[in-house]
Write a structure and sequence with these properties.
heterodimer; A: mainly beta; four-stranded antiparallel sheet; 0% helix; B: 107 residues; mainly beta; six-stranded mixed sheet; globular
Chain lengths: 119, 107
C-alpha cells in the first residue's frame, strides 16, 4: 500500500513562496509512475498543478508554470513543491499524488494539508 | 488547452436509482479519461480509468463509457455511501484538467 505524506507550513504570507514536501512510503519513487501535486481551494474543485518523473523530467500546468517548481529527491524518496509569489487565491488543500501518466490518472493520494495564504 | 465540463452540476436521486453523470471534452482525448469520487471531507478516490476500466476494489455498480469527447459515469443502483462529488479528469496531455465536479445527494 503506497503511502504519501505531505508536510510544510500551514500558513504562508502573501508574495512569499509556498513550500511542501511529500514523503513516499512503501514504494520506491524510482520504480516508475509519475509523482504530482493537485490542489483544491476550500469548497471548490480540483486543479492539477504538475508532476515529475524520478529522472527529474517535469510537467506543469501552463496556468501556474511561471511560479511552480517540482523537484525530486530519490535518496529520500520524496518530492517537493515550491509555488512562488502566492496570493490569497493560492489558499487550498494541496495533495501529493501518484499518477499513472504524466498528466494524471491518480491512484494514490496524500491526505492533503490546508495551506492558507494570509498576512 | 482542452477544457472539461460535467453535467449536471448537482443531482439528487433515491436509493436504488440509476444515475448518470456526463463529462465532455472540448477536443478529442480518445480514452484518456478518469473518474474520481470525493466523499465529504475525504480524499478523492479513483473509480474508473481508461474511460471504462474499473479500478480494483471499486463496486461493480459503477461503470464508465465513452471515447473522444463524450463520456459517462453510471451508478446502476445508488447506495447511501455514494453521496459524494464526482470529478472527471483528462490525462492524454498536459495539463491534466478536471471537470468542475458533480455533487450527488440522496433524496
Amino acid at each position: 500500500q503506497v503511502q504519501l505524506q505531505e508536510s510544510g507550513p500551514g500558513l504562508v504570507k502573501p508574495s512569499e513562496t509556498l513550500s511542501l514536501t511529500c514523503l513516499v512510503s512503501d514504494f520506491s519513487i524510482t520504480s516508475g509512475f509519475h509523482w504530482g501535486w493537485i490542489r483544491q481551494p476550500p469548497g471548490k474543485g480540483l486543479e492539477w498543478i504538475g508532476s515529475i518523473y524520478h529522472s527529474g523530467i517535469t510537467y506543469y500546468n501552463p496556468s501556474l508554470k511561471r511560479r511552480v517548481t517540482i523537484s525530486v529527491d530519490t535518496s529520500k524518496n520524496q518530492i517537493s513543491l515550491n509555488l512562488s509569489s502566492v496570493t490569497a487565491a493560492d489558499t487550498a488543500v494541496y495533495y501529493c499524488a501518484r499518477q499513472r501518466y504524466s498528466s494524471g490518472c491518480i491512484d494514490y493520494w496524500g491526505q492533503g494539508p490546508l495551506v492558507t495564504v494570509s498576512s | 488547452d482542452t477544457q472539461m465540463s460535467q453535467s449536471p452540476t448537482s443531482l439528487s436521486a433515491s436509493v436504488g436509482d440509476r444515475v448518470t453523470i456526463t463529462c465532455r471534452a472540448t477536443q478529442d482525448i480518445t480514452h484518456y479519461l478518469a473518474w474520481y469520487q470525493q466523499r465529504p471531507g475525504r480524499v478523492p478516490k479513483l473509480l474508473i480509468y481508461g474511460a471504462s476500466t474499473l479500478q480494483s476494489g471499486v463496486p461493480s455498480r459503477f461503470s464508465g463509457s465513452g471515447s473522444g469527447t463524450y463520456f459517462t459515469l453510471t451508478i446502476s443502483s445508488l447506495q447511501p455511501e455514494d453521496v459524494a462529488t464526482y470529478y472527471c479528469q483528462k490525462y492524454n496531455s498536459v495539463p491534466g484538467s478536471f471537470g468542475q465536479g458533480t455533487r450527488l445527494e440522496i433524496k
